[in-house]
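idk why but the lab printer keeps eating my pages so im just putting this in chat instead. protein + magnesium ion:
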Amino acid sequence: MNITNVSVSHLPGQRYPWVFLHIDTDAGIRGLGQVSSGPHSALVAAAAARLGPLLIGEDPSRIEYIWHKLYSGFNSLGSQGFVSALISGVDIALWDIRGKELGLPIYQLLGGKFHDRLQLYSNGWFGGCSTPQEFAQAAAKTVADGHTAIKLDPFTRGHRYLSRYAAPYPPEDDQYAVDIVAAIREAIGPGIEIFIDAHGRFDVATAIRLANRLAPHRIGWFEEPVPPENWDALHQFRERSDVPVCVGERLYTRWQFRPVLEQRLAEYIMPDIIRTGGISEMKKIATLAEAFFVPISPHDATGPVNFMAASQTMLSCPNFFRLEIAYSELAVYQTVVEPPFDVREGYCYVSDRPGLGHELREDYLAKAIAY
Ligand SMILES: [Mg+2]
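predcted complex ->
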């Protein structure tokens, strides 16, 4: 079997357009992938649409070889971040082709089912909330739907997207965040996990102050306290704060996770499968973390193929902890994929159909912008 074509669908998403990659073969099998989506969606779509000359004529079953061909091919520019996102789309589509060729779901090609189902944690459940009471009510409803862990960024009072990197947060707004988390904890009781997302945007002193103010409300993890470029900053945070740490949605490939694990910088890691290098890389990062007894909990907030690929991979991983779901996006996912995802009462039941187990609906694909 040989690759005959590579194409891209730039389609309406929830917050940003989603970028899907399609690989066609001379056997008539088509693979589906997704490249990281965000403010950069149009740019990665344009780049992904031009990968054909590097891939056409290759045997799609040579997944490791093609991964390395792309990684080394871009190495003089740096192959992590933008390039690893492109590789992610290709890698996921190649695994989809391989599964379809063999008639097996991808998890069967990764060692089989370690878990019977995947426990989720919910993000994006707080749309429209601004007062602590509103957050508390929305959290209680999410828990009533069966979720046992919820995530939020409570540092949103006009500061959600700061213009500065490694920025301070106005101390006069601390209490607003504390009040939100306290109200949520009171509403949902002690047994539900609350994960706090700092979105990697604070300076060290700010991150320490905010984490320690929230710690009395039992924080399951404090995510990306500081930007990822400076591990010394995370060391400082860990020396002076009382919360578990999770990092990884802005880390790319096994090589960027190695220092986090070796230097004991996080209790949890959260690679994003459409950024870090696809299914192949996610499995390797999971195994690397397993050697350090660190659980893996994929970042999974930007699109349906992200969710499909991570769930297929995590089903085979012993150190899987929880899979993120952008709960407010699930309704959108269900209108664009077939068959719909089987998500019930806080769990994902992973498809046992060949490949990723789901396709994008034709009526949705018809809305794509051409590249
Ligand atoms: Mg995050």
